Every structure is written in C-alpha cells, then in structure tokens.
Amino acid sequence: MATSLTLIATPCTAPRSSSSFALAPRLPPRCSNATAARRRVPVRGAVRATTLQSDQEPAGSGDSGATTTKLSAWTSVRQERWEGDLPIEGCLPPWLNGTYIRNGPGMWDVGEHAFHHLFDGYATLVRVSFRGWGGARATGAHRQIESEAYRAAVARGRPVLREFSHCPAPAKSLLHRVGDLVGLVTGAALTDNPNSALLPLGDGRVMCLTETTKRSVLIDPDTLETVGRFRYTDRLGGMVQSAHPIVTETEFLTLLPDLVRPGHLVVRMEAGSNERKVIGRVDCRGGPSPGWLHSFAATEKYVVVPEMPLRYSSASLLASELAPFYAFDWVPASGSYMHVMCKSTGKTVASVEVPPFMAIHFINAYEEEGDEAAVVVDCCEHYGDPAIIETLVLSRLRLLRGKDVLPNARVGRFRIPLDGSPFGELETALDPEEHGRGMDMCSINPARLGRKYRYAYACGARRPCNFPNTLTKIDLVEKKAKSWHEEGSVPSEPFFVARPGATDEDDGVVISIVSSDDGEGYALVLDATTFEEIARVRFPYGLPYGFHGCWIPATEE
Ligand SMILES: CC(=O)/C=C/C=C(C)/C=C/C1=C(C)CCCC1(C)C
Ligand SMILES: CC(/C=C/C=O)=C\C=C\C=O
Ligand SMILES: [Fe+2]
Question: For the chain, which terminus, N or C, has the lower number of CB atoms within 10 Å?
Fold first, then answer.
C-alpha cells in the first residue's frame, strides 16, 4: 500500500530514555527482502543480473539468514528524526568530549519506490555526543538531510532526480521532454543528495556533499538540521566532483573531473572562503573520459590525481540512461595512470602508467626523498576489478548474508617515481589474509595526513561474508592487522579520534556505528592502541549502514 510521506508530527515509536518528538514523514514499512529480490534490475550490459535465485538464498547459519534477520543495516530509517539520551556500557575516557557525526544513505524507500543500490539512499546523519567532563554522558540523534532530491521525493512519493543507479522515467509530454533535455545538459536533473562526505571546514561550518556539483549543504552539528546551501562564489562549473575533498584547518582541496575535455581541475579553497581557485589542470592519458574519482590523495607538497579504467560515461549522463556500471563504463584498454601535481606551482611533476587498479577510497600519501624520490600512495584496492560496485546492490546485501561473495581487496601501495620514469609500481602493502581479504572504508590519524604514517583503520572481512564485517587496525610497518568482530554485525567505517595532547600515532579511540544481528544499533568505542572495546553507547533502535564520519571537539563548558 502506498503510504503518505507528508510531514506529520508523530512521537517516536522507538523506546527511549529521554528524547524529543520528531517531525517525521510516515515512511513505508521496512522493505521486505523477498520483495527486493524480485524487483526488476535496472542495469544492463556487463553487470550480472541481481535477481536472486532460490538456490542463492543464504544458508542462514543460525539467525543470520536474510528471511529471519532483524539487522537494520540495509533497511530505511523509519522516521525523519530522533534525539535523546543514550545509555553507556563500559567506561568512556574522560577526555572524549565532542560529537561524532556519520553521514550515509539511510533511506532507500520512498512511496512505492525501493532503490536498487546502496549509494542511492537519501542522506541520513547519525550523531553521538560524548560529554566526559564531570561524569560520562552520551546523547544521540539521527536526521534526514533536506536536499532538493529528498524533499522532491517526499513530496511526489517517488524519486524525481537521477541517483547513483536510478534514472527517472522520461517525461510523457513533448513540453516536459524539452524540460528533461535542459535538465540533462545543465545537470539540473542530477541529484544533490549529499550522502557521501561530512566535512567540518576550518571556519566551523559543516558541509555535506555528494559527487554532483549541483548543491552541497551546510548542517548544524548539534541539531543535525540542514541550515542552508553552500554557495561557491566562483564560476568553475562542471557536473561532478570528488566525494572526498581533503580538508585541513586552512584549506579545502578537491578535484573537478572535466567530462568535455577529459581531464581534471585541481582546486583549492581557503578556510573561511567560498571561492575555489584553480591550482592546475591534468589531462587524461586514457580515454574517452576521466576515471571515477570518488576520492584522491595528497602529500604535503603534491596532489595525486588517479585515473582508473572505470570511467564516467558521458553518454549515460546525457541520455539519462544507465551505463553498464550505472554512470560508468569499465574500459580496461584505456589504461591506469597516476598524476602528481605540485600544489604551489600547479605543474604536473609526474604522470605515470600503473598496473590496472580499482579504488573507491584512497587512504593516505607521502613523499619519499633522496636519490629515489617518489610519492607513495595507499588505497583500498579491489584487484583492478569493478565487481565491488555490484556487491553493493541492496538485494545482494540483504539476501547473500553469510555467503562468501565479498570480492577480494588489499591495501594497494603505489610508488610514483619523481625522476621522469614513465611507469609507477603497485604492490600489496601487507598480506591481505591479515584482514580477511576485505578492505575499504578507512581512516587515519589526521595528524598524519600527507605524511609518512604507520596505522590505518578500515573495515575488513571475517569470511564467509558478503560485506566487510570487521573493524581492522592495520600496521603498515609490522605488516600485521588486529580485528574486532561480532557475529552477524555490520560495523561502519572505523573513525580515529586522537587523545588531546597525544604524540603516539595510535593514542586515541576508534568510533564505529554498528548494526547488530539482533536488530540493535550502537556506537562502539575501541581503544586505538590495543584495539579492544572500551565502551558501547546504545541507540534505542537499529541504525542503517552509513559511510563516513567526522569529529567535532566540544568547546570547554
Ligand atoms: C556514496 C558514494 O559512495 C557514492 C555516491 C555517488 C553518487 C551519488 C554519484 C552520483 C552520480 C550521479 C547521480 C549521476 C552523475 C554521475 C554520478 C556523479 C556518478
Ligand atoms: C561500503 C563501500 C565498500 C565496501 C567494500 O568492501 C564503499 C562505500 C563507498 C562510499 O563512500
Ligand atoms: Fe566515500
């Protein structure tokens, strides 16, 4: 039955200790997994059909079977917002004062429409605030970001704009088709659903964004309210951007792929400003368009521009049709390259061909000086295979739990020589068995950004699994990993928070939000040194999976 999505005042249904009422849309019941499995698969070409056959039903070891699971990771949040106190189990460190916020696609169902891919969901923020001074206390909240895409979908009861794997049906009337065409050419038909990154800017503003340049939003980190649009005062244009600008206290660096004249603009915005300035441009070496640029890396002096064979499909964007990989084509013959641009001069100081790679997330990069000067770049590398994109189709995530279908991944380490050599190397930084051959969603100590570093925190695998299910601390010097795992649970990106005044790289905690097999949701706090659990802070309801987090330290009270 179609359910109204009009905003109505409703009390929270979830039990809570002390919490506020939320203005909540009446959402449809949680998507049934069986229904999702039968849904038509809107992807053609090289991508395998994702309608699951009965022989693909998960064996369902114990209670982790898809039909009986209460796991909330892949189901939409049931109300627009909630906030309240959270009970703490364990002992939070007294120095942990501040707010952890995580962004991600928490709403995959609107009206009768159920999205197909993890990346499609409307952005949901989840917050946990820790107050250690004078006794530990934690409060939590979640809230939908009010993007144009979300508001239009709620108003119409169906998605109106193009999302990662969803193209709206073409208009029926000629007049509306002209409108559609304008929308395609200007990019207005694309989503602004900011479910990817969450960036505390150096000036105190907090920005959420996706990969379209159409609109990024500013949010209030306390109420999670969407407080406005982030308006650039420059006229750089372009349709797409990296989902992961590199932000420090002083600057914001990002890449703008040029789909018309294949290349990338490397741009910089000073903290406090709304104007991006071009540092330089890198032309693509392979064609016919830039490689997907979800993220990139930078050292203290250089910006590293990756060019991989999963390339933006201009035809898909202009025709509003899905390409074999949604908005992308896999073009192995186009080659893989890494470009290094000097931040201060805008000159490309290296442009090398590298072995084929497929990386969504770069971890870090640093310079190596001496006779063999080079830039070292680490990423979560999927063995040059785009299959990981299909792994993230919601029906697969829901129905293949317990099946060993997560493609292998490793920490890929590039070495880009700065002596003009035409080739760069790609090696495996540590034995992937250390992290169960699963590897993505990474963070590091931000004090090591762009510098030589030892530890990375990521989601790894305890097999059999269809999605990363461990939190893993990787020691890139000892080439060892330590993992946290809870049977049936899905943890999100482990986010490192340094202890104030710390000098050791791993002196701090790691925070992750976990959706557990019994339907519960909690924020987990691990000691980053020992990687042992020190506390968990429970939400009164299960939380959907989410992507990336940030930390906003509290100001002294
Ligand atoms: C969250 C995440 O990892 C990736 C999200 C990517 C998105 C939302 C990409 C969106 C796009 C469109 C809606 C059409 C244009 C191309 C592209 C930027 C891929
Ligand atoms: C969750 C994910 C990949 C998992 C692979 O093992 C990618 C998410 C990308 C968005 O930031
Ligand atoms: Fe990401």
Answer: N
- Of 167, 212, 312, 328, the one to substitute when testing ligand 1's pocket (max ligand atoms within 8 A of C-beta) is 212
Ligand 1 centre to CA of 419 (Å) is: 36
Q: Helices (DSSP H) in 76-227: which residue ranges?
A: 148-156, 174-186
CA of 385 to the centre of ligand 1 (A): 19
pLDDT exceeds 60 at position 297: yes
What is the best residue among 361, 389, 465 to mutate for testing ligand 2's pocket, by most ligand atoms within 8 Å of CB? 361
Ligand 2 atom closest to Cα of residue 547: 11
CB atoms within 10 A of CB 285: 18
pLDDT > 80? residue 17: no
Q: Probe ligand 1: pick from 192, 211, 317, 361, max atoms within 8 Å of CB?
A: 211
pLDDT score of 5 more than 60: no
pTM: 0.89
Q: What is the mean pLDDT of residues 99-121?
A: 98
**Amino acid found at 436:** G
- Tell me the domain boundaries of the chain: 81-553
- Report the distance separating Cα 476 and Cα 34, nearest Å: 42
User: With contact defined as beta carbons under 8 Å apart, do 368 and 376 qualify?
Assistant: yes
Give the tens place of pLDDT for each residue, 132-171.
866 689 999 999 999 999 999 999 999 999 999 999 887 6
Portion of the chain with pLDDT greater than 90, in percent: 80
CA of 124 to the centre of ligand 2 (A): 16
**DSSP run (H or E) holding 50:** none
Q: Which pair of structure tokens corresponds to residue 53? A: 């056959």
Ligand 3 centroid, distance to 443 Cα (angstroms): 11
Per-residue model confidence (pLDDT) at position 69 = 80
- Among 31-35, 91-95, 404-408, the least confident range: 31-35
Give the sign of the dihedral formed by CA 369, CA 371, CA 377, CA 378: negative
For ligand 1, whether the C-beta of 393 sits within 6 Å is: no
Where residue 185 falls among pLDDT bands split at 50, 70, 90?
low
548 is in an annotated binding site: yes
HSE-up of residue 380 (Cα within 13 Å, Cβ side): 27
Query: Mean pLDDT over all residues of the chain?
Result: 88
**Cis peptide before 288, with omega less than 30 degrees from 0?**
yes
Q: Are 536 and 522 contacting, i.e. CB atoms less than 8 angstroms apart?
A: yes
- Pairing status of strand 495-498 against strand 508-515: antiparallel
Write the residue with the smallest CA distance to atom 19 of ligand 1: 327
Cα separation, 169 vs 150, in Å, equals 17
Torsion angle defined by CA atoms of residues 392, 398, 400 and 406, in that order, rounded to the nearest 10 degrees: 30
In this structure, the residue with its CA closest to atom 11 of ligand 1 is 164
